[in-house]
């Protein structure tokens, strides 16, 4: 796996770890802040209403994060799995050695030679033997093409993941900021007063920033175009091999050979 893909996975783990912490604190923090404000008689009613309104807004916006985040995260992790498969498969094609096979079907490597034998199959056999180097070269060309195609696709994935990483880092920072805002609100509750309303509004801002970051993450462009191009090139390579079949075995029964 590339370092970029690994960092994406690390950041996604960090995001979900912080969300787990946020899930355990945000509701109690908002409710505790509102209760504290409503319990202080000197705070004007309009400010109490403002605090409750903003607490409800923060909670409602926070609830929209998982439905946007979870599908996008699953999709990115599938992309990473696909990338790992492509990266593992490509070198297997790039490492194929045709030298032994080429020597085995090279000039003079196979009979018949001169008048070694003669039968109704002699010319058919000679024609088949003569075509073998061309057939093998075609196969070699196709395998080399596949090596190049998968290498190109691996590079496309790695370039794509650079953009994903930027979005994931932005999202991780936004979620971390959200957790910090929740913690700040909890710490502000004992002091009470109008400043607690400011802390609730700060939490609203942090939630909205996280929502924006999740939307940006969920609307990343995909790599389907690169995959489609690779699929077309692979199909062309496979068609080339399919259209150049190996010679059939000699047609005569053994009794007709002499």
Structural class by secondary-structure content:
mainly alpha
**Strand/helix succession:** HHHHHHH
Q: Give the radius of gyration.
A: 34 Å
Number of strands: 0
Mean pLDDT: 89
Number of helices: 7
The poorly predicted ranges are: none
Instruction: Give the N-terminus to C-terminus distance in angstroms.
Output: 60 Å
Strand content: under 5%
Q: Residue share in helices? A: over 70%
Major sheet summary line: none
Shape: rod-shaped
Provide structural commentary.
- With 258 residues, the protein is mainly alpha-helical.
- It has helices spanning 3-38, 45-62, 65-94, 99-104, 122-188, 195-218, 224-242.
- It has a domain at 70-243.
- The longest helix has 67 residues, at 122-188.
- The two termini are 60 Å apart.
- The mean pLDDT is 89.
Write the SSE topology.
Blueprint: H1 3-38, H2 45-62, H3 65-94, H4 99-104, H5 122-188, H6 195-218, H7 224-242
Helix pairs in contact: 1-2, 1-5, 2-6, 3-5, 3-6, 5-6, 5-7
Features:
single chain, 258 residues, mainly alpha, rod-shaped
